[in-house]
Amino acid sequence: MFELRLVEGGLLKKILESLKDLVNDANFDCSATGFSLQAMDSSHVALVSFLLRAEGFDHYRCDRNLMMGINVANMAKMLKCASNDDIVTIKADDGTDTVTFMFESPSQDKIADFEMKLMDIDSEHLGIPETEYEAIVRMPSAEYARICRDLSAIGDTLVISVTKEGVRFSTRGDIGTANIVCRQNASLDKPEDATVIEMEKSVTQTFALRYMNSFAKATTLSNQVTISLSSELPVVVEYKIAEVGYLRFYLAPKIEEEEGMNTEMVTGPKTVEKRAKIKEEPIIIEESEFVEERKPKTETDGEESKPKIEINGEVDGTMAIKPESEANGEAEAEVIMDVE
């Protein structure tokens, strides 16, 4: 038997609204510690993880670990039927293929319940290792959302650079470039308006701006956002959910092709984005793809190829290889040697 009761029902609505455009189907994990989810987007570039601890609910009961496969968009539709101040209760019995949502008004003069079918979703739970990041930026979540929105009008990639001067957000597009620098500041009157930078060394990484914009939809959950960066590791964009949980987004960086690299061996005729992976840890976002272009050994100009035979540094003759003959059903090859 699993049952949770959340007085602030609007909190669940905000979480699902933040996820529905990123994750399609996901397994919600119910355990004694709390209600959680871990899922990747369809392209396996972004990972989302959230946790609501058991002590954060008005009532929480979980007799045994339970995994509920749910379509995130459908669950968001269910929760839209609840008012922001409604009390939300979620129930699921052992062995059943449905989950029940119940919404109660604060005065309890209105109670509504909805039942939704569960899904069988084959997904692997990834172990996310604890990592010491080279740079951590804490800033107002509304400011981060505004920066992503403004830069998305200029380009489609976001470059984040953390230095002693501050954190720089920049992009480049067909119409020009844009740079926004946020310097460290401490606001004693309003701590949620402060920008705090903890840095061991300078870090610069590039990300797909559409994903960073999607993460910003969780702005309503917290006044502050934490951005953790390390070279060649996915960025972590974290929103604290009051004091009872968190919502974290992981995004693999884009590694652009460097000038002077052998494009034939690394990227082929077209530029291929190389997605980073976490070093020897189970949370591999996506392995790099390499395309090898092989050129023919001999270039022809409409005539039969005639490689030259070189003897003692001088060309003493030419050799022509006649194509295979299929006249008698057997492959024949004729070698003609002309030696002067």
From TrEMBL:
Domain Proliferating cell nuclear antigen PCNA C-terminal, residue spans: 127-254
Q: Which GO terms are recorded in the biological process aspect for this UniProt protein?
A: DNA replication
Say yes or no: keyword Lipid metabolism present. no
- Principal location class: nucleus
Q: Which domain of life is it from?
A: Eukaryota
InterPro entries registered for this protein in UniProt: DNA_clamp_sf, Pr_cel_nuc_antig, Pr_cel_nuc_antig_C, Pr_cel_nuc_antig_CS, Pr_cel_nuc_antig_N
**UniProt subcellular location:** Nucleus
Q: Name one GO cellular component term.
A: nucleus
> Can you give the residue ranges of the Proliferating cell nuclear antigen PCNA N-terminal domain?
1-125
* Record keywords, A-Z: DNA replication, DNA-binding, Nucleus
In UniProt terms, what function does this protein have?
A: This protein is an auxiliary protein of DNA polymerase delta and is involved in the control of eukaryotic DNA replication by increasing the polymerase's processivity during elongation of the leading strand.
Give the family, as the similarity comment puts it: Belongs to the PCNA family.
NCBIfam families noted in UniProt: pcna (TIGR00590)
What is this protein called in UniProt? DNA sliding clamp PCNA
